[in-house]
Amino acid sequence: MSECIFCMIANGDIPAKVVLDEGDILAFDDIAPQGPIHTLIIPKHHYSDMGDAVPAEMMATIFSAVPRIAAMKGIAESGYRVIVNNGRDAAQTVGHLHVHVIGGNPMAHGMVHFVDVD
Ligand code: 5GP
Ligand code: ZN
């Protein structure tokens, strides 16, 4: 998937602020952070989303990195939100599976904002 921006980051073809580079996964800071801390975790292999036959072990590897990344970022105690935008209706914009870890300030309760529908 040479046209995939996250594959390019995983391959080192474009730069990113890497937080964790560990085996089959890579974590790096979001280019347009939605909070003081906004880190993305990706598998280095291209999966378009959670429905793309992602091995259970890969999902476990990705999610088990979350609390460690939170600790590295200093938000383990204060808390953080973990988000996967999966597919069109979730407004996934990059078609390479990724997990958002967002924190650093208190957030409003709730996390689902549907666009207006007729
Ligand atoms: P999505 O909307 O697909 O769940 O999230 C994609 C995220 O990737 C967005 O938060 C966006 O800011 C981030 N992003 C898009 N392009 C780049 C990039 O080239 N580098 C980095 N570090 N983040 C990116
Ligand atoms: Zn990719």
Describe the structure.
With 118 residues, the protein is α+β, with helices and mostly antiparallel strands. The chain is built from two helices and five strands. It has a five-stranded antiparallel beta sheet, covered by helices on one side. The model has no long low-confidence stretch (mean pLDDT 96). Guanosine-5'-monophosphate (5GP) binds at residues 5, 16, 28, 30-32, 85, 91-94. Zinc ion binds at residues 1, 4, 6-7, 46, 96.
What are the main properties of this structure?
single chain; 118 residues; alpha+beta; HIT family, subunit A; five-stranded antiparallel beta sheet; 2 helices; 5 strands; 20% helix; 22% strand; binds guanosine-5'-monophosphate; binds zinc ion
Structure in a nutshell:
The chain is of the alpha+beta class and 118 residues long.
Described by the principal axes of the CA atoms, the overall outline is globular
Mean pLDDT: 96
Structurally, the number of domains stands at: 1
As a percent range, the share of helical residues equals 10-25%
Q: Per CATH, what is the topology? A: HIT family, subunit A
The structure class reads: alpha+beta
- Architecture, according to CATH? 2-Layer Sandwich
Uncertain ranges: none
Tally of DSSP β-strands? 5
- Biggest sheet descriptor: 5 strands, antiparallel
| Residues in β-strands, percent | 15-25%
